[in-house]
Amino acid sequence: MRNQAYLLGILLSGTMLGASFPVAQAQEAAPPSTAHRAIPPEDVASSIYHPPAPETPQATGVNSANLPDIDELPIDQLPQAVPQESANPKPEDWPAYGHDDRATRYSPLKQITPENVGKLQRAFVYHTGVLVPKGNLNRLAPETTPIKVGDSLYLCSATNDMMRIDATTGKEKWRFHSHESYDAIPFTSACKSVTYYTSSTVPEGQPCHNRIIEGTLDNRMIAVNADDGKLCESFGHGGQVNLMQGMGWSVPRFVGVTSPVPIINGVIVVNHEVLDGQRRWAPSGVIRGYDAESGKFLWAWDVNNPNDHHQPDKDHYYSRGTPNSWTAMTGDNALGLVYVPMGNSSADYYSAMRSDAENKVSSSVVALDVRTGEPRWVFQTVHKDVWDYDIGSQATLFDYHADDGSVIPALIMPTKRGQTFILDRRTGKPLPDFPVVEKPVPTEGGVKDDQRTQTQPWSVGVPRLGFPKLTEADMWGMSPLDQLACRIKFRRAHYVGEFTPPSLNRPWIEAPGYNGGSDWGSISYNPQTGIVLANWNNVPMYNQLVTRKTADQLRLIPVDVPQYTPRHGMTAGNAAQAETPYGALVGPFWNEFTRVMCNAPPYGMVTAIDLKAHKVLWQRPFGSARANGPWGIPTGMPLTIGTPNNGGSVMTAGGVAFIGASSDNQIHAIDLKTGKTLWTDVLPGGGQANAMTYAVNGRQYVAIMAGGHHLMGTPVSDQLVVYALPEQDEK
């Protein structure tokens, strides 16, 4: 395939991807101590700006709805929860972001098969009405997956409006206007989904017995009545909770909720994205629990304040710069746990100023007790991460049937590295059949004041989603001159394989890149067969650390200082890393002139893995060249050579999987037995969202949000596209 890909080099540009992406002392009105690593003040001070102190009052507009503080509810007063729709979904429903509480992304529907999928046609298109406001930078990337309960779809727009539409016609039944300012949107306007909740205290038939709950990009939590979209007045303050409470200094766009909030035994668990690359003492990555009935605060897990689970008073705030979790979490009602995929401490590419507590949980999956906020266990996928390998995927839960007849409650944790870890979800330990070993990694060539670890974890029981180490022979381009330019870039760079340490005196190649392997689209899992389906990326990065003086000269400025000027694609580019000795230049490993990647295709793949057999069933390049080309000019040629992709898959009992995700702007139907693409349709915008499927009156539908993604460079639209077989072909 790689030889063929070389001949097809002129067909594909290196379209860049989106990303994003237990512990120590009491809450203080100052950053955590860095005594373990003293940094001279002159090494971190900027000559062109002064970051505001953490205790500075929040900027106007941070609490956009002017909501009062929320009270705390003692955990013993938490009402007993009732079973939820997502615990055991009806076959025709899709009541949660990942289909069910286990986040399998698997549907038992089987009306659509490999034999008839080619007859799919559009049943309806729904317009969210949200496009880029005139005169604004494009930050749209809706990433929305609808949920389906009964006869309705529930979804959120790119700016956190919530809608209920008829699942057969797309007719809008109600719309809740969030009144979210476009200026409050972080680098990507991602509202991945909403959460359906059935109350245990409001009687059936009364308003807000069934609720739709979302977290917003301007850091609110909102609950509305599922029947009519009106605010649930008994939740929070008139239906809303201010999630900026206790966060300290911030500005609009610095902190926001991008993923659906899970509800476990009546506890809403809230995480949030903190904008990458800004400053060491960015707002906290604290994880919090709230009562799903009243919206009142229950607990906080604050990494540098592990023994204080209360809200800070008005003179204090959650510890700054701690690892945040921005992707979808998974709840476990039986064990009373929530599985939190963690990111990095602030300043992704420099770790010397992190506390020991931060280093223990960075780029880890952490199991929190949903009644207390206490960590039960931590499993780390990268030690002292300086490559932005935060976990972007949602954990998938399953029951593993061991050879001795025992059944182990387990989880699947995909990663950007392409390593897939299989853990006992009671303990966080790798299952015996899926061992994890520590392997030596490069440690030389980085900055002397930030030492790397000697080893990193490898999952040796699951086939890796990745390719071998890059070599100069892998460099290529549109012409021999382009290939030569890439060879020169390769030779200039510091590169000694995976985990090459970040370097100051020359660029370093990061492969896998920070959007390599599996990201927020996650995987789908068939609990009947034990097969995992994963679409993934192969896009290296070309990065370099720069001194604070050079960062100033390049005008690398964090978002919360007056001199900051908004620009397109914040987290895909350079990082100020204020209050550290180094800024970071971050970009794809490509030919800057043609915008074609320097490594050979494929850049996107799809793989089916039999977990029980520990083997790849099939693996294919994913995505065609039709909408890609040098200088970003589409070639129109439908050759499957593997393109960058963002978004995930859905598997069905009918033997067909559906994936949008790729930069060819198509939805693809794939034969689960062979990996063959059976059907495609060109979408009105980029399909960077997870597809889903459902049924009404025996008719199966497939839906995908085709809103585009600014970091992928795919076309923008406001359309949810829904497909079905022609009525005469239904059986």
TrEMBL record:
Pyrrolo-quinoline quinone repeat domain residues: 94-702
GO molecular function, one term: quinone binding
Ranges of compositional bias, category Basic and acidic residues: 90-102
Keywords noted in UniProt: Oxidoreductase, Signal
Required co-factors: pyrroloquinoline quinone
Region (Disordered): 44-70, 82-102, 433-454
GO CC terms: membrane
Protein origin, superkingdom: Bacteria
Record's compositionally biased regions (Polar residues): 57-66
SMART domains reported in the protein's UniProt record: PQQ
Pfam families named in the record: PQQ (PF01011)
Signal peptide feature range: 1-26
SUPFAM superfamilies: Quinoprotein alcohol dehydrogenase-like
Protein family per UniProt: Belongs to the bacterial PQQ dehydrogenase family.
Protein name per the record: Glucose dehydrogenase
Organism: Bombella intestini
